[in-house]
């Protein structure tokens, strides 16, 4: 006979077993931290790879475990870069408190930026915040004061119609304007510190250019003007014939092989060699009681000027003898080594820099030298 009493006992037993099989968890009674406030301060500079950042908080409930800039550029910071700061916060007492944070509940003072992500913080872990700074030229209002956009010298490589100027440390590119007289012939931008305008030497006239360094469209240096370069019809044709478009390539290193077409002012005999940027061959060096001089193959010799001999420039005084040391020529300073050859792209024995055209470009004032 079916017994309701027995059934009730069985059901009660099953219920007790089911209750015992389910583990019992205590409710998370920790107090939720629903907002955080931190201060982010960086110390970065143009062109540097610095990664200095400090993150602080006045809270007694949590502390800054670490702060790191994660996107430091290998070639240095630019004005429009946006450093990303990864910040990890740790609870002072994770038995009493827990995180309940979103991007909207994070307040950041100090350097201007935006909270771009919040993650972690579950259980007893770190809360990770990524804070992306605004453009650096907006974060640092005095950013432009650290820019060096000064061009010290602008000169011609005269035989080749190449404009050549000194580097500006902070320049990303240069803007160059070429003139014949007062007529603007061309405006170009280049990342090099030189540009060949030889193809624009189409007629006799006075050529000049001005150049300025550019960092960004809102950060430009002052215009610097070159000396005037007057060329005859035949000289213009000669310059134009030297034009090589590859010189103006951003990857070109050709400029270092183009030095000024330095010429003298006195001609002795009708010659293609004396006082011209032509590689002299077949001549002879001669040493007499007064010094070295160079006899060209046709018997002529150079006076009061430069001559290119076997790939190197030499300067000869009014008597036709080779000079060494500092040379003052057409308002520029050059240096000829002990062998008489003009130095280029190097430091002189007395510690001053001469560029690819052989021109002294430092702030040094060698007027104390006596030039013969």
Structural write-up:
- With 372 residues, the chain is mostly beta strands.
- It has three helices and 26 strands.
- The strands form nine sheets. Strands 12, 13, 15, 16, 17 and 18 form a six-stranded antiparallel β-sheet that branches. A four-stranded antiparallel β-sheet has the order 4-5-9-8, with no helix packed on it. A three-stranded mixed β-sheet has the order 3-2-7, with no helix packed on it.
- Residues 251-280 and 364-372 have low confidence and may be disordered.
User: pLDDT average, as an integer?
Assistant: 79
Unreliable stretches (pLDDT < 50, length at least 5) are 251-280, 364-372
Helix content: under 10%
Give the N-terminus to C-terminus distance in angstroms.
140 Å
Shape: elongated
| Main sheet properties | 6 strands, antiparallel
Total helical elements: 3
How many beta-strand segments? 26
Structural class per helix/strand content?
A: mainly beta
Task: Tell me the strand percentage band.
Answer: 35-45%
Q: Over all CA atoms, what is the radius of gyration? A: 37 Å
N-to-C SSE string, H for helix and E for strand:
HEEEEEEEEEHEEEEEEEEEHEEEEEEEE
């Amino acid at each position: 006979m079916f017994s309701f009493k027995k059934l009730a006992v069985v059901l009660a037993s099953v219920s007790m077993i089911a209750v015992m099989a389910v583990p019992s968890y205590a409710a998370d009674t920790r107090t939720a931290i629903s907002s955080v406030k931190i201060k982010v301060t960086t110390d970065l500079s143009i062109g540097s790879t610095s990664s200095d950042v400090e993150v602080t908080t006045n809270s007694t409930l949590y502390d800054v475990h670490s702060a790191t800039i994660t996107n430091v550029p290998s070639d240095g910071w630019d004005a429009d870069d946006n450093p990303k700061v990864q910040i990890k916060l740790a609870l002072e007492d994770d038995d009493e408190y827990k995180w309940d944070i979103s991007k909207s509940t994070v307040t950041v003072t100090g350097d201007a930026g935006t909270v771009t992500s919040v993650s972690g913080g579950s259980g007893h872990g770190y809360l990770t915040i990524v804070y992306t700074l605004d453009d650096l030229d907006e974060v640092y209002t005095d950013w432009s004061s650290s820019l060096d956009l000064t061009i010290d010298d602008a000169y011609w490589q005269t035989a080749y119609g190449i404009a050549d100027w000194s580097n500006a440390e902070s320049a990303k590119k240069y803007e160059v304007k070429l003139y014949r007289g007062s007529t603007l012939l061309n405006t170009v931008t280049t990342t090099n510190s030189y540009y060949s305008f030889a193809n624009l030497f189409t007629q006799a006239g006075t050529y000049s250019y001005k150049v300025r360094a550019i960092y960004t469209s809102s950060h430009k240096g002052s215009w610097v003007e070159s000396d005037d370069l007057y060329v005859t019809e035949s000289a213009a044709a000669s310059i134009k014939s030297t034009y090589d478009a590859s010189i103006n390539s951003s990857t070109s290193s050709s400029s270092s092989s183009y030095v000024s077409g330095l010429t003298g002012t006195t001609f002795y005999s009708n010659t293609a060699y004396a006082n011209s940027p032509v590689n002299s061959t077949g001549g002879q060096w001669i040493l007499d009681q007064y010094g070295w001089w160079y006899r060209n193959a046709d018997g002529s010799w150079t006076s009061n000027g430069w001559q290119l001999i076997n790939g190197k420039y030499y300067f000869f005084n009014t008597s036709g003898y080779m000079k060494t040391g500092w040379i003052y020529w057409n308002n520029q300073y050059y240096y000829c080594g002990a062998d008489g050859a003009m130095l280029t792209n190097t430091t002189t024995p007395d510690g001053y820099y001469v560029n690819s055209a052989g021109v002294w470009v430092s702030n040094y004032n060698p007027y104390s030298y006596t030039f013969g």
